[in-house]
Design a protein that fits this description.
Elements: H1 7-32, H2 40-56, H3 72-78, H4 83-89, E1 95-99, H5 105-110, E2 131-136, H6 143-152, E3 157-161, H7 170-173, E4 176-181, H8 185-188, H9 192-202, E5 203-214, E6 230-233, E7 239-240, H10 242-246, E8 252-259, E9 266-273, E10 283-289, E11 295-300
Parallel strand pairs: 1-2, 1-4, 2-3, 4-5, 6-11
Antiparallel strand pairs: 5-9, 6-7, 8-9, 10-11
The protein binds S-adenosylmethionine (SAM).
Length: 302
């Protein structure tokens, strides 16, 4: 006897088959797109813990790509046009903060005695030097730093370590005419908008933040086949450039110099604080993969 299937039963079977197909396709796409196979938050926490370990590596254990001793001439080459002249214009009562200073070689060069080999590049006018503060999560002070700090006395150069920028208050650090960041917190932080907000709060009105960001979508357009390190997206999930995001900040004048021919497309960024009511559009962290530097993906909040 021929069995007769009811239309309802047939529809249910077809729906069940379709559901199985959808699950298989979604899983396959998920694997191909490299989507997280576990919830994002614990994975991010694990990666941030791995990042902390990178900071603490010492001696032969320090990865060769994690450079901590760039001098002032490197800073002059890597930072936006005008950094050296601006540092040279600072007087004895002005202040310079270097975030993510590593061994603080740039500050040592700045304070090198006249006639020292490093002094040719020290971006300072004869006699005048700003007070300088170096911040690093891990303590990478050298004997040379200790000797120089002791001989200068009077708190001309300070080295702070043991925590990241976000854990210092403005009252604790005071305010600065110039803030620099060369492959420091701006490249490494897991909270980019909060980082920039703190930097701007630490600047005097009229002060300037000089930094750079490697492996980003450039203001002037991208090269094909680029491996990005820091990716931003708007609230709708469309790509957002770091410079267009920063330019939405209240009380900040942002200038970008795109370096498309560097090993990684890099944006040299200058942010001038033009009034006191700073407000940085918030971004949330979507992905973080530890490294030197880490891979990060952020999304603008509404
Ligand atoms: C690759 S080293 C760069 C050192 C130095 N600027 C140079 O170019 O030689 C990274 C530095 O950034 C620091 N760093 C990373 N994230 C930071 C944060 N959120 N606040 C303060 N320092 C940070 C690290 O502790 C380290 O001193």
């Amino acid at each position: 006897m021929r069995s007769v299937k009811s239309p309802v039963k047939e529809w249910r079977t077809a729906a069940a088959c379709l559901a199985v197909v959808i699950v298989i396709v979604v899983q396959a796409l998920g694997l191909r797109a490299g989507w997280p196979q576990e919830p994002a938050e614990p994975r991010i926490d694990e990666e941030i813990a791995k990042q902390e370990k990178i900071y603490q590596r010492r001696g032969a254990d320090v990865p060769s790509g994690y450079i901590t001793n760039r001098g002032l001439s490197d800073y002059a080459e890597l930072l936006p046009t005008g950094f050296c002249d601006a540092l040279g214009r600072l007087g004895n009562s002005d202040r310079w903060l270097d975030i993510g200073a590593g061994a603080a070689q740039a500050i040592l060069d700045y304070y090198a005695p006249e006639g020292d080999a490093a002094s040719a590049e020290k971006c300072a006018r004869p006699g005048a030097r700003a007070r300088a503060v170096a911040i690093s999560i891990e303590d990478r002070r050298t004997d040379k730093w200790r000797q120089q700090a002791a001989s200068l006395g009077d708190d001309r150069i300070r080295y702070l370590s043991g925590k990241s920028l976000r854990h210092y208050s403005v009252e604790e650090l005071g305010k600065f005419q110039i803030i620099t960041d060369v492959f420091g917190g701006f490249t490494y932080t897991a909270d980019l908008s909060r980082f920039v907000d703190k930097v701007l709060r630490l600047l005097e009105v009229g002060g300037t933040f000089y930094t750079l960001l490697p492996g980003v979508h450039l203001e002037g357009g991208d090269k094909l086949g680029t491996w990005y390190l820091t990716e931003l997206e708007n609230a709708a999930g469309r790509p957002e450039k770091v410079c267009s995001w920063l330019k939405k900040t209240a009380c900040a004048k942002v200038t970008c110099e795109s370096k498309s021919d560097w090993k990684r497309p890099t944006e040299l960024i200058k942010v001038e604080k033009v009034c006191s009511d700073v407000s940085v559009p918030r971004m949330k962290l979507l992905e973080f993969v530890s490294g030197y530097p880490p891979d990060r993906r952020f999304q603008l909040e509404q």
